[in-house]
UniProtKB/TrEMBL annotation:
Catalyzes the sequential decarboxylation of the four acetate side chains of uroporphyrinogen to form coproporphyrinogen and participates in the fifth step in the heme biosynthetic pathway. Isomer I or isomer III of uroporphyrinogen may serve as substrate, but only coproporphyrinogen III can ultimately be converted to heme. In vitro also decarboxylates pentacarboxylate porphyrinogen I. It catalyses: uroporphyrinogen III + 4 H(+) = coproporphyrinogen III + 4 CO2; uroporphyrinogen I + 4 H(+) = coproporphyrinogen I + 4 CO2. This is Uroporphyrinogen decarboxylase. It comes from the Eukaryota. Belongs to the uroporphyrinogen decarboxylase family. Residues 28-37, 148-164 form the Uroporphyrinogen decarboxylase (URO-D) domain. Keywords: Decarboxylase, Heme biosynthesis, Lyase, Porphyrin biosynthesis. The gene is UROD. It comes from Felis catus (Cat). The lineage of its organism: Eukaryota, Metazoa, Chordata, Craniata, Vertebrata. It is an enzyme of class 4 (lyase).
Length: 363
């Protein structure tokens, strides 16, 4: 694995300091899906290529990652990629159908389908294009802000692999949990074994923080979550940290974002991650009471609040910052930006966070 490739010195480490729980002069902010279709320049860059071809082009990923930073004074960049490159690397075919989303022509239907999957230890070597994108982007960022790497959590990846695409109920994936618990655990272990070297490889390539997306946590109640999601979320953090240490790589802060996983906040706060991401259905003060002082919180403005006027966005941000408090906090949305959002309003959100968080600290 390549060691830190003499990257430019980091000029703004506010996001990393907040992630580690250190005091900051203002609240750092970034947005999930900040490199996205709401930007005309993103649509222009992406127009020529199929989605996964774009993911496989380090130059394209680098350009898309940097676009929002040219417009807004964000405090972090997140590499442009997709959580489904992992199932692809395990040998599953995935296509992105315009207007419909991801599609797996041959989803997993029974236990023996697991034999089709490649050795998880080989996954990182299939995903060299992500590592190249990270290294290139880290160089091009020239130390402006830290670069975040990411992956989907095992349960969320399993849902796509079994459902064959998006689903409103996840009934097929949950049927597995109830009817095929052994095979489910086997699949979740395969995914965990693939994710650990993939995330470590991202750090070796230059990622300065990692976020794990458990986007489909909300389809599981507390029992299923504690049985089929949480153990693997914990395992990923523990093993990534151990592997970084063994590889002589500096530790990086890790973020867990379990959407609609409010029933498991306490467990997530103790799962080995420095930062717990919240969606907009969670009240910040209550979350803070429940997780205690040991983790940083990230979130959680309703993305649809960006449809409001710029003045109203300012008011909503002020309320949010008051509720979270000044320290151990990274501002973000409670989910990704939507394609029809006005970039001006994204700018208003970022500016409001910076402005009000400085004021809060003066008072």
């Amino acid at each position: 694995m390549p060691r830190s490739q003499g990257f430019p010195e980091l000029k703004n480490d506010t996001f990393l300091r907040a992630a580690w729980g250190e005091d900051t002069d203002y609240t750092p902010v970034w947005c999930m899906r900040q490199a996205g279709r709401y930007l005309p320049e993103f649509r222009e860059t992406r127009a020529a290529q199929d989605f996964f071809s774009t993911c496989r082009s380090p130059e394209a990923c680098c350009e898309l990652t940097l676009q929002p930073l040219r417009r807004f004074p964000l405090d972090a960049a997140i590499i442009f990629s997709d959580i489904l490159v992992v199932p692809q690397a395990l040998g599953m075919e995935v296509t992105m159908v315009p207007g419909k989303g991801p599609s797996f022509p041959e989803p997993l239907r029974e236990d023996r389908d697991l034999e089709r999957l490649r050795d998880p230890a080989a996954v990182a070597s299939e995903l060299g294009y992500v590592f190249q994108a990270i290294t290139l982007t880290r160089q091009q960022l020239a130390g402006r802000v830290p670069l975040i790497g990411f992956a989907g959590a095992p349960w969320t990846l399993m849902t796509y692999m079994v459902e064959g695409g998006s689903s409103s109920t996840m009934a097929q994936a949950k049927r597995w949990l109830y009817q095929r618990p052994q095979a489910s655990h086997q699949l979740l272990r395969i995914l965990t074994d693939a994710l650990v070297p993939y995330l470590v490889g991202q750090v070796a390539a230059g990622a300065q923080a990692l976020q794990l997306f458990e986007s489909h946590a909300g389809h599981l109640g507390p029992q299923l979550f504690n049985k089929f999601a949480l153990p693997y979320i914990r395992d990923v953090a523990k093993r990534v940290k151990a592997r970084l240490q063994e590889s002589g790589l500096a530790p990086v802060p890790m973020i867990i974002f379990a959407k609609d996983g409010h029933f498991a906040l306490e467990e997530l706060a103790q799962a080995g991650y420095e930062v717990v991401g919240l969606d907009w259905t969670v009240a910040p003060e209550k979350a803070r009471e429940r997780v205690g002082k040991t983790v940083t919180l990230q979130g959680n403005l309703d993305p649809c609040a960006l449809y409001a006027s710029e003045e109203e966005i300012g008011r909503l941000v002020q309320q949010m910052l008051n509720d979270f408090g000044p320290q151990r906090y990274i501002a973000n949305l409670g989910h990704g930006l939507y394609p029809d959002m006005d970039p001006e309003h994204v700018g208003a959100f970022v500016d409001a966070v910076h402005r009000y968080s400085r004021l809060l600290r003066q008072n």
